Amino acid sequence: MNKRSRQVSYFLSSQYFSDGLRTTLSILLPSLVLAQFGQLQAGLAMSLGALNVSLSDAPGPVMHRRNGMAISTITSFVVTFITGFARMNEYALGAEILLFSFFFSMFAIYGNRATSVGTAALLIMILMIDRPMDATGVVHESILVLSGSVWYSIISLLVSRLQPYRLAQQALGQCIHEIAKLMAIKADFYDTSTILDDDYRRLIAKQVDVSEKQDAVREILFKSRRIVSDSTRTGRLLLLTFVDVVDLYEQIIAMYYDYSDIRERFGKSGVLDQISRLIRRLSVELDHIGLAIQLPVPLHKPVDAAPRLEALKYSIDALGDQEGSKLVLKKVLVSLRTISQRLSALQKNLALPSVSPIDNEAMEYGRFVSHQEIDLKSFLDNLTLDSSVFRHSVRVAIAMLLGFVITKFLPYGHHSYWVLLTISVILKPAFSLTKQRNIERISGTLAGGLIGVFILTFIPNKDIQFAFMVLFMLGTYSAQRTNYIVMVICVTPFILILFSFLGVSYLGVAEERFFDTLLGGIIALMASYVLFPRWESEQLTKPMQAILKANIRYVQLLLDSLSGRRIGLIDYKLARKEVYVTSANLSAAFDRMLSEPKHKQRNEKLIYEFVVLNHILSANIATITSAQLENEPKIYPAPLLRPVKRSLFALTESLRRLGIKPTKPLLEQTVAIDKAIPTTDDSALAEQLNFIQQVSSDIGKIVDRVK
Predict the structure, then answer these.
(1) In sequence order, what DSSP letters do the residues of 580-611 get, joined into one string?
(2) What is the pLDDT of residues 150-179, one digit of tens each?
(3) Which of 206, 527, 584, 675 has the fewest CB atoms within 10 Å of its CB?
(4) What's the chain's Rg over C-alpha atoms?
């Protein structure tokens, strides 16, 4: 199966497409059924309730999804009821918009699912603003919205009941897919035609995607009691595969070498091209494994990597001594063999009729996932300008009220709530995200508007128009969590065709929608720039502190292992996870800073170097520590430990300069002696440890320059 076919198969079997299909049917059916009885308006109200609660139905454990949908169902009923009466008085409606925009935006302090519930509440408020109803109509509409919310919740939970493992399979498949992409990027480091800085940027950006996907899998697997305590083959296979895949990911990340030196010494020999092709081949094999889990389909016949590995070994052995030591190439070969063996083990597990039991208690899954407490204290503690969520909530409230007031002075159109809808969707906590959403929203609306007008103008057949509307609905709800611009391109013609069916002039609607989107985008962008902005350059210290803490813990485990102490496997994996998560957080924050106005950016080159050096540091620590775990504890001579102690001291000092006082101060006298270590039998290990010390020292120098 070629790359394009795999991409299509991944999408069609993904949770995003299945969610989009379920959401489309759940929203469409009430309107279609009730329209047959002359109750189209009632059907639309139920569809609105289904749409609203679908926003809170983000992937995750069934219990969390059920709770989120239950809260969203109640919230949508209450907000519909209050808005229906508040809209009878413009001042009351303005006060509601201000208070609700602030209150529901504050839900972000409780995590992503709570944020989705808050977003759904704002959506239902906005969509109710321009619906003229009397008191009886408000009660009737609220009940219909409630019915639609319950309808969607039942469908969603029923699907989960019938396919209890489907969501976990899809999440794990997507996770493996992203790791395969990252592995393909690693191949570029051996390609002399690429620029190393570009390779590092793409690798670090992809690590953010992998970290997000791994967190999603942990949430679903480790918080689902049915899977964790399952004795069936499917449950065991999912857990075992994920544990093995994370270990494989570590092996891929740990494959760090001095690529500039390798390219300079071996670039003309052709052996680097062999390495690059082999890594790409292995990444394709990994991609097939992910697809087999996600579809699930029979695993394609694995490609034996042994001949390619032997050919690479022959090429390395055939190199003369003129290029210098071939030790680094032999290390690459060993790493590729290990990766190939891990892939073979994954393929064999998928083919086995049964999987060995897993000691769930020993795995301590609960320690690998975060637990968010929902309490009033957290809400009250965030009512301060020091809280980014509070700043954002105030920003949203003011922008929404401003948008509402402006639309009251504009004699333009009848769907002014689109301005508020645009503000609520575009305005994000970070200016860079608001800016990106703005561009995507405006360009997507223009492109989607042209598509919609073209269909309605040149394809008069109503049945074909309806088919297009359903396809655009499916595209909208499939892309809403993955690709915002695709969602906007799909939603605009969907709305134009819908209004056309309702007897509204689609040309007027298209013109009005674009104008309202442009106005809402301008208000959102200005609010993000002017109202209590907090630029990423002012907040980078925290993620820098976090990654230093994680790497200090990592180095401490390395020191413990070299000192003869037995390291607990769970402790090591937790430390490894913390390094990956903090590295991804810093990389994401750095990317957001680069999207902000140039004059608001600070030390971008130094921060980039800091990110890369921490990646190099953790990769080298993982290489040594993971090898130590496989062997019996051994006490190494004191001179060999000195670079590790110096590294620990340098990182701790860097953390102190960033404003964090270490909890365990190191004795400087212990680590500040003997600049060079004597030669030992472990010369290769000594070289690696010296390199770790050098990288830690370079990190300290960068911190000094940043401060």
Answers:
(1) HHHHHHHHHHHHHHHTS-GGG--SHHHHHHHH
(2) 999 999 999 988 888 888 899 999 999 999
(3) 675
(4) 28
Which letter does DSSP use for residue 373 in this model? -
The vertex-250 CA angle with 326 and 611, nearest 5°, equals 85
> Are the C-beta atoms of residues 671 and 645 closer than 8 Å to each other?
yes
Contact of 512 with 418, CB cutoff 8 Å: yes
Dihedrals phi, psi of 25, to nearest 5 degrees: -65, -40
Least confident of 260-264, 280-284, 353-357, 502-506: 353-357
Predicted pLDDT of residue 597 = 81
β-bridge mates for residue 563, sequence order: 635
pLDDT tens per residue across span 516-544: 888 888 999 999 888 888 788 888 889 99
Helices (H), 163-195: 166-188
Q: Can you tell me which residue has the tokens 């600070």?
A: 602
454 and 497 Cβ atoms separated by less than 8 Å: no
Residue 117 near residue 372 (C-beta atoms within 8 A) = no
* Cβ contacts of 358-367, under 8 Å, gap ≥ 24: 358/236, 358/239, 358/240, 360/228, 360/229, 362/570, 363/239, 363/243, 363/570, 364/570, 365/221, 365/222, 365/228, 366/222, 367/570, 367/574
Q: Where are the alpha helices (H) located in 223-268, listed in sequence order?
A: 225-228, 233-254, 259-266
Q: Token digits for 90?
A: 């413009």
Query: Which of 95-109, 566-580, 590-604 has the largest mean confidence?
Result: 95-109
pTM, to two decimals? 0.86
Partnered with residue 635 across adjacent β-strands are: 563
